Amino acid sequence: MILLVLAGILYAWYLDRLIEQRFDGETWARPSRVFARPLELFTGLKLSPQQLTYELKLADYQPVKVLSKPGQFSLVDDVFEIYSREFHFADHYQSEEKIRVYFDDEEIQELEYMSSNDELLFFQLTPAVIGSYLPGNDEDRLVINTENIPQSLIDILLAVEDHRFYEHLGISPLSIMRALMANLKAGKTVQGGSTLTQQLAKNMFLTPERSIIRKINEALMSLMLEIRFSKEAILTAYINEVFLLQQKKIAVHGFAQASKLLFKQPLKYLSKDKLALLVGMVKGPSVYNPLVHPKNALKRRNQVLKIMLQDNQVSSDEYHRLIERPLGVVKKLPPVNPFPAYLDLVKKQLKKNYSAEDLAEKGLSIFTAFDPVKQRQLEQGLKNGLNRFSNHSIQSAVLIADYLSGDLLAMVGDRNPTFPGYNRAIFAQRPIGSLIKPMILYGLLMDGKTLASRVEDRPIRIKQSNNQIWSPENYDKKLHGEMTLYRAFVNSYNLPFVHLGLENNGLQRLTDNLEKIKLVRQQIIYPSLLLGATVMTPFEVTQMYQVIANSGYFTPLTTIRQVMDNKHEVLTRIPLYSAEIFDRQSMIQVQRALIGVTEEGTARYLNTRYADKTFAGKTGTTNDLRDSWFAGFSDRYLTVVWLGDDENQPIDLTGSSGALRIWADIMQQMDDASVKLGAEPGLEWEYINSLQGGKTGKHCNDSVLLPFTLGSKPDFSSDCDANYLEKGINWLHKQFQ
To answer: Is residue 548 part of a domain?
Structure first.
């Protein structure tokens, strides 16, 4: 007998320890949420009403005719009325606010407060949640505190599930007897006798098996919960723990997350009929799933509303009005992570400071640079571009960055942007071909060459260490004789760059410059590096071109701006870092050559398609047409496109015929301004003949305006093959020099 008592005491102690471990400290794993950048509204912002509508819907704002609660917006004749939600940003708290936004075509004309009609200079919209990092057991929930639980939810829940909750000590013998009699009368289980505390004990600590032992454990643990914790703590735990929905492989727990998924609204803003539906789902989450079994769900919701009528929570008129309402749920559940490629990189960059457990369990708020509008433009442009090609095995990776700030704004790692598999943008290491040439050109300029320097396009044969002969060729298999360095670059001829790279230690300069941005992989440097035989990921190519587009200033590409804990304290803030690691004057000359590529070189398609704009960029093609690249930039944005085959088979596309066309389709969606070269007093500009390299007139054939460091302009002139009027103007100009 004594042994039985001791065994009972030990077993009770064991159960008590289980309860203590779950209820003390962090009761639940709190998934971290990843937020897009907040949309900052101000007068003069270039933004279309369609883009603002997209942003609002992505942030779960509901379109309505008349605003009645936060999280709603209306649009009438290019005038938006927005009822914003409260939100804890990393640097400030923003309360609920009603604002009005006036549009003039595709630009914000005016902002004002709706309450006072006073002018509003600036407003940050609630950022959209673009992803979550879930715990290892694939459970998702939004944990809410006791003070944030709507009283109406508590009233409905207790009326339906446990109306004597505040009277019992965890178990209710009367309820058990009443359920037993009902089940015996029906000949099957039609009613349960479990209290909310028992349901909580079963959900948190026990398996769903039906057995006497489990029921005994459930009763014992319910009593212990009631002894150790307050009714409010137990009720809050239940509201956060109860299983309500299955989102593919993700089990959705708690009323708060179910409300967000089914209604796209926080729990506190739900009407009584919607709360009734959620409470009704407790009885059978699969049977009463409104997306799968809407008729069952509607019937169950109305049963709950009838209980509310009997409990005097609604009047007879209100009851009859509510039962006529539709369920009001979404048509389908959104994906857990709709932008998987971007989320991959966020997680990779967070690993420097946070473990996988921290991300999945501590409820962090991760504020990123993700731009939903840019992502949408990228995806639409990519879709349009891929439709050009009949080969549907072509894969793609695209990145868009703000090259001044280093913010990575948008990204895809698959031709299907929502596919959560292999992320080619950050993992696919592919040869980059002629994308390497701007870095070679930079080294040549630093060595004293100019864009007007004469170079030769002639054969070369190099005996390698394995006694094999390396004899590279131009892409067109032709030789083009003598020309300027500028002309060789814009046409992407290989042989002049191989010759120049092997002279005067040019190959070593190239590797030294790549090392500055940590993009050298090979221990042994081969001459083929001069033709882009090195491999890089699309992300690494974007980093290389960031420093080129930013005039030699290196800014690490980042997705993360701030990280905040669940108490709204900032844990990490990413400072803006920029360092001048390359010579600005020489890099501006490289930029001018990249503009030449799009005006008259391998990317001149852009000059045809966008005659009123100026872009800079470089095409890249690898052996046997296996990889197609284009890296280009406009006034502020750098976009890199890669096309290829996962089996490394030829795709029969050059950089010009493949990636460049995708880039152009994306740029059509973005409609960014022309690139502008920075003012630099150490540079002077001169028209030269792009074949011969001598100074020439503005309107002469083969004339091009190029920058030179002071004192390095050509000291001779080239003949002007132009009309007689131009020749006369040039002759007079020479006479008065």
So the answer is: yes
Rounded to 5°, angle at Cα 236 from 233 and 242: 130
The alpha carbon of residue 366 and the mean position of all alpha carbons in its chain are separated, in whole angstroms, by 12
Domain identity same for 95 and 198: no
CATH number for the domain spanning 645: value is 3.40.710.10
Q: Is residue 243 classed as helix, strand or coil in its secondary structure?
A: strand
The closest alpha carbon to 336, from 33, 88, 597, belongs to 33
pLDDT at 177: 56
% of the chain residues with pLDDT over 90: 67
Q: Give Cβ neighbours of residue 380 (< 8 Å, ≥ 6 apart).
A: 669
pLDDT of residue 189: 46
Taking the mean position of all CA atoms in its chain, how far away is CA 665?
20
Angle at 290 between CA 288 and CA 291, to 5 degrees: 125
CB 142 within 8 A of CB 257: yes
In degrees and rounded to multiples of 5, residue 288 shows phi and psi of -105, 25
Please give the tally of structural domains in the chain: 4
Please tell me the predicted confidence (pLDDT) of residue 574.
84
CA distance 688 to 256: 68
Measured CA to CA, the distance from residue 80 to residue 66 in angstroms comes to 11
In a domain, 448, yes or no: yes
**pLDDT for the residue 736:** 52
Q: How far is it, in rounded angstroms, from Cα 552 to Cα 363? A: 39
Domain with 730 in it: 683-735
61 close to 96: Cβ distance less than 8 angstroms: no
Do residues 644 and 715 share a domain? no
Same domain, 721 and 688: yes
> What is the C-alpha separation between 65 and 542, in angstroms, rounded?
44
Least-confidence region, from 205-214, 431-440, 592-601, 694-703: 205-214
Active site residues: 161, 434
- Per-residue confidence at 362, pLDDT binned at 50, 70, 90? confident
Residues 214-239 have pLDDT tens digits of 566 667 777 777 777 788 988 888 89
Beta bridge partners of 111: 101
Task: For residues 185 and 85, state if they share a domain.
Answer: no
Q: Strands of 395-402's sheet, edge to edge?
A: 408-412, 395-402, 637-644, 627-633, 616-621
Q: Quick check: 256 and 267 in contact, CB under 8 A?
A: yes
Q: Is 716 exposed, middle or buried (0-12, 13-18, 19+ CB in 10 A)?
A: exposed
E-only strand ranges, 485-636: 535-536, 553-554, 560-564, 570-573, 579-580, 616-621, 627-633
The sign of the dihedral angle between the CA atoms of 9, 15, 17, 19 is negative
